[in-house]
Specification:
GO terms for molecular function: lyase activity; magnesium ion binding. This is CoA ester lyase. The chain starts with 14 loop residues before the first strand and ends in a 5-residue tail after the last helix. It is built from 12 helices and 10 strands. Helix 6 packs parallel to helix 8. It folds into 2 domains: 227 residues, Phosphoenolpyruvate-binding domains (TIM Barrel, Alpha-Beta Barrel); 53 residues, no CATH class. It is globular. It has an 8-stranded parallel β-barrel with strand order 1-2-3-4-5-6-7-8, surrounded by 5 helices. A two-stranded antiparallel sheet has the order 9-10. Helix 1 links the parallel strand 1 and strand 2. It has 303 residues and is an alpha/beta fold. The protein binds ligand LIB3CWND and magnesium ion (MG). Magnesium ion binds next to helix 7.
């Protein structure tokens, strides 16, 4: 693979909202929210004595009122915990689009889960997402991303977890995430090297929307595809920052139109209004336009 083309070029993952599976009211609310994807959490937001009840909530939710038109992901407890096998049974029963593994330390974690899925009839539809949130996870990010290939191509997306990473490393929550940026960039690079998407970490302060918006802008500039969220108030900001401006859309259309002109047949590089544009830019433009079409479709208009 030589480009950053992902498995699913037109898949939207701007806003990925986490919802505690123990909270029926919040589960119900997901139907009216404009996030691109929902993570149904069985891990940290569910108390130990409530795990079984949370799984039951999910079984009911997926059977009776499943999410439509958006990706659904279930976050299970860690593979070495006592909850994992019951969580995976719930995942297989619910049939979300993906299972999110927390605290992935190395490629073996992904392989173990891929082997488990291979024993079921969910291989066609169920993908694996991995949380990169431990020091080993960050150090092994490239090997983990590469494991996607041996694990039947099921690995699809990385999600960064800075709460755990701060806890494990002692890095302070400084403005601008200054000391965390090297870790974040390493995760993005590893994801891109193997065609995975990468989702930025949650921001805990869900009432401080100015700081949150700045963090979204930073995440977008770093190359993340979207942000994991904890509260509905964070959805609009993520959709805006990880979406496209009118200017970017117009530029993508101009690039696509230029290369569609027969006059550019056989040319790899052209002059577009005083700027060099290559066919690699056409790939980027087409990816942007495909995502823009999905957004427009969802909003009931034409791109
Ligand atoms: C943080 C919260 C506990 C705050 O909840 P609450 O006190 O209810 O907030 P509000 O009163 O402002 O809520 C307003 C209404 O919005 C609904 N709501 C709130 N959060 C959600 C949600 N996540 N999904 C759907 N709906 C939500 C409330 O029910 C209110 O509705 P209404 O009654 O009609 O007014 C809460 O936001 C929350 O639990 N958030 C998610 C927590 C979570 O999922 N944690 C795990 C993910 S974080 C993570 O993964 C960290 C990572 O691992 C790492 O290491 O970094
Ligand atoms: Mg975590």
């Amino acid at each position: 693979m030589t480009s950053i083309t992902s498995h699913h070029p037109a898949r939207l993952r701007r806003s990925v909202l986490s919802v505690p599976a123990i909270n029926p009211r919040a589960l119900e609310k997901t139907h009216g929210l404009s996030c691109d994807a929902v993570i149904f959490d069985l891990e940290d937001s569910v108390a130990v004595e409530k795990k079984a009840e949370a799984r039951e909530n999910l079984r009911r939710f997926f059977a009776e009122t499943p999410l439509r038109g958006r990706e659904s992901i279930i976050r299970v407890n860690g593979i070495d915990t006592e909850f994992f096998s019951d969580d995976m049974a719930a995942v297989i029963a619910c049939r979300p689009d993906a299972v999110l593994l927390p605290k992935v330390d190395g490629p073996d974690d992904v392989q173990r889960v891929a082997d488990l899925i291979a024993e079921t009839d969910a291989t066609e539809s169920l993908r694996i997402w991995a949380m990169i949130e431990t020091p080993r996870g960050v150090l092994n990010a490239a090997a983990i991303a590469g494991a996607g290939r041996t694990a039947g191509g099921l690995l699809d997306c990385f999600v960064v977890g800075l709460n755990d990473l701060r806890k494990e490393t002692g890095v302070a929550p400084e403005t601008g995430r200054i000391y965390l940026v090297p870790f974040l960039m390493q995760v993005i690079l590893a994801a891109r090297a193997y065609g995975l998407d990468a989702i930025d970490s949650v921001s805990n302060e869900f009432r401080q929307l100015d700081a949150y918006e700045a963090e979204c802008a930073q995440g977008r500039a770093m190359g993340f595809d979207g942000k994991m969220l904890i509260h509905p108030a964070q959805i609009d900001g993520a959709n805006r920052h990880f979406g496209f401006s009118e200017a970017a859309l117009a530029e993508a259309k101009a690039i696509a139109a230029a290369f569609a002109d027969p006059a550019t047949d056989g040319l790899n590089v052209i002059n577009l209004d005083g700027r060099m544009v290559e066919r690699l830019h056409l790939e980027q433009a087409e990816r942007l336009l495909a995502k823009a079409r999905v957004i427009a479709e969802r909003e009931g208009r034409t791109a």
